[in-house]
Amino acid sequence: MRGYVYGLLELADRVRYGSSPVETLRLTDVVEEKPANDVRCVSRYFCSELEDKSWYYDKAFWTGYLDSIAANRFNRFTMAYGLEYDFPRGVTDDYLHLPYPYLVDVPGYPDVRVMQLAAPDGTRLPTPLPVSKAERDRNFQMLRFIAAETGARGLHFQLGIWTHAYQWTDSPNAYHQIEGLTPQTHAGYCRDALAVILKECPEIQGLTLRVHGESGIPEGSYPFWKTLFEAISGAGREIEIDMHAKGVNQTMIDIAVATGMPVKLGAKYSAEHQSLGYHQADIRALEIPHANLTKTESALFSLSSGSRLFTRYGYGDFLHQGARYRLLFRSWPGTQRHLLSVDPEMAAAYARSASFCGAAGLDLMEPLTFKSREGSGVAGGRCAYADASLDPKADWQKYEYYYRVWGRKLYDPDADAEAWRRYLRSGFGGGAIAIESSLASASRILPLLTSAHLDSASNHDLWYEMPTNMPIVQGSEPSPYGDTPTPKVFGTVSPLDPQMFSTVVEYTGALLADQPSVKYPPVEVAQWVEDCTTASRAALDEARRTSRSRTSPEFRRIEEDVLIQIGLGTFFAHKLRSAVLFEIWQQTGDAEAGTLAMAQYQTARDAWAAMAARAARVYRSNVSYGGVPKRRGHWSDRLAGIDTDLAAMRAKVQGSPASARARQNIAKAMRAATHRSSRPSAQGAHTPPDLFQAGQPLSLSLGIAPPTAGLSSVSLCYRHVNQAERWKSVAMSGQDGHFSGAIPAEYTDSEYPLQYYFELKDEEGSAWLYPGFNETLSNQPYFAVYKRMS
Fold it and tell me: Measured between alpha carbons, how far is 420 from 428 in angstroms, rounded to an integer?
């Protein structure tokens, strides 16, 4: 049935945006499509009473928004509550944080009520007031309306409940207080409240639940979850359970499976950010389980900060074959949450990898997800424009092109570009292709930086669109990021994917030692970023010349967000080069390296200042995503930290030199840091097997064309598709461009699929990977193969 709907919507879309309705409906070939991913979801979160009530209560908003989602071939929508905070500590704006008492009266619990202590703007009330039954009924009726409208469009409706605590820790300024619950009645109340909601809102087809310690329920509290899940098993219909995967163990899986309902685990695609469109080949060292836990962590996060630490930011060990659940990937809005960012190639890459090793698909936490969390709400519109003429009527309309591209690509990674180009042509005429190109190139910058240089895996700390400066010079200022290697400076920052990318310190050490590394280095990342900024700026200039209207709000919104992303890319490209040069200076004492480091950092700083000055005319001084400076404010605010660090570098370099060492390779290292690099031109040829037989060697071969006489070694790197494990490698044998090797039989005897890639080195001192990344950075840089099931 949904296929017929998509067909009709496609015809309507062609008529609406086509230049000639008759011609657009004249089909010369049969168009036959089928979805690449079973789940194609958009999730929206209530995070601020001040900013979110207006859209939550607006029925016209919902009809237009859901029409867009359905038309763009998403098949699931989640309305979620309870993610105003990562953990219920220091809470202020807590409206709907524990949603039940804001939605329903629960028979048997007459004393449970919500007391309002402050107005939505934080002003304390002289006398606390109970949230009225009329307000509670209005909240629930809107939930029922949203669910019904979702179902009417053929979409699966998922209810998200991310918090189950009823008391907040260290929160004297909370806006509300929940009364009438005790530790003895808490689990039963939540079960009975959920049962009422499921009964009175029959369109709910699934529940998304955070079940680790940040939910407010200490990990290992299995009786609570068993009790809550009784509402699901007793609902009288199928209710899908989607448990956020962080910290989940087999016991929690068994509790969910015992309900008899379908079970999914929602894993973060690339930490709490948007990376390049593939699953990181390895996790950061910080996510590998360790024993150094505080007493508090042990009590509240005994699993997610302990033995299950590796499940925090990826698919963990959940992708084994034969599981009684399916994995679902969730793309978090840490890297890009406010600026318009659309790259069809990247969306296609996500679409192909969303079904990685049998996964169910992708849940997109939409743009603006976390807007005004932690009581940071600001009146005047969620898009935060200082120039009110840029405001769309509804916030989702700024991202209409985003929904169109991502929805079509999740449905079919090879979707015809005409599906979004006709939309662009309708608004921009001859500038449509240039706008697509400019936005695509700009949108590639931050995901690349996320994969290659991730100051923090937490979106709570790192906001790559508006990051607080990470110092290059140790001691110049405190690091704003906690989960980053020590010493906490720019040069030691780990990539999201340390298997594919190297740190500044790691790369510089190998460079000075003349030891080739196969990993992608910071200077190559800088070069890629520079290529993106150059291509985006050139296409934007073309769009300005050829678009129908340069002054329309639609064009200006795209233009300004592209320019900010170009400014960010320019800043980070030069900062990466500066950091490598500064590390050369630190390791060698070479004065020229120090001078070049300062020059690169100054160029970076000037690019940031110019971008921020323009953005000050576009966005308000507080683009609010949280209660502390690194989650709010403006690009202009970050300039002081950059200046402090640059001054510290200047003082250090111009003062006493670093300890000197042998000068060999210094000139070569400085050239690498300041010039374009190129990878070897030899191309690999490899056909991955369809399946492997458990307990049998998996033989693999690689051809190099043309044969490279100086090729000194080829290694096969392999691992189970299990992020709890580390990679292994074996040397391959061969000659005349043909190499062979095998993954050992004892290693293939596993319930996990396998992943592998090849490392190549030549006598010229070059090293590279196969398959590596393509020109648009939109492919998977390794192969994956399933086990043959008996």
Answer: 12
DSSP state of 490: G
Residue 681 φ then ψ, to 5° = -85, -10
Nearest-angstrom CA–CA distance, 612 and 207: 41
- How far is it, in rounded angstroms, from Cα 321 to Cα 691? 13
Report which residue type is found at 345: E
pLDDT at 11: 87
Locate the DSSP E strands across 557-660: none
Q: In order along the chain (790 residues), what is the average pLDDT of each group of 10 residues?
A: 83 87 77 92 98 98 97 98 94 98 98 97 96 98 98 97 97 97 98 98 98 96 98 98 97 98 98 98 94 58 93 97 96 95 98 97 97 94 95 97 98 96 96 98 98 97 97 94 96 98 96 91 98 98 95 97 98 98 94 96 98 98 96 97 98 78 77 86 87 97 79 94 98 91 97 97 88 96 90
**C-alpha distances out from residue 545 to 105, 183, 268, 436, 614, Å:** 60, 66, 41, 14, 21
Q: Which residues pair with 326 in a beta bridge?
A: 264
N-to-C CA span, the chain: 35
CB 644 within 8 A of CB 477: yes
d(CA 348, CA 408): 9
Specify which residues 124 forms β-bridges with. Answer: 118
Rounded CA gap, 231 and 364, in Å? 27
User: What radius of gyration, in Å, describes the C-alpha atoms of the chain?
Assistant: 27
Instruction: Please say whether the beta carbons of 109 and 189 come within 8 A.
Output: yes
Residue 705 identity (one-letter amino acid): A
3-class secondary structure per residue, 638-695: HHHHHHHHHHHHHHHHHCCCCCCCCCCCHHHHHHHHHCCCCCCCCEEECCCCCEECCC
Please name every residue paired with 743 in a beta bridge, in sequence order, or none if there are none.
Answer: 698
Q: Cβ distance 750 to 787 under 8 Å?
A: yes
Q: CA-to-CA distance for 755 and 102, rounded, in angstroms?
A: 47
86, burial (CB in 10 Å: exposed 0-12, middle 13-18, buried 19+)? middle
| The residue type at 158 | Q
Strand 176-179 and strand 113-118: pairing? antiparallel
Q: pTM of the full predicted structure?
A: 0.96
Distance from C-alpha of 94 to C-alpha of 118, rounded to nearest angstrom: 10
Q: CA 320 to CA 300: how far, in whole Å?
A: 28
